[in-house]
Amino acid sequence: MLLYQDARDRWTIPEGHIEPGETAQVTARREIGEETGLKKN
């Protein structure tokens, strides 16, 4: 499980919606990158 501190100083999990054509795994990776700034090398 990944928690990050949001702009309101709250601890939360990355979340979002599946875009058309995406798998759940691709969505999870994209949302983690968007919300935390973490990127896979």
From TrEMBL:
Keywords: Hydrolase. InterPro entries: Nudix_hydrolase, NUDIX_hydrolase-like_dom_sf, NUDIX_hydrolase_CS, NUDIX_hydrolase_dom. One of its GO terms (molecular function) is hydrolase activity. Pfam families: NUDIX. Residues 1-41 form the Nudix hydrolase domain. Belongs to the Nudix hydrolase family. This is NUDIX domain-containing protein.
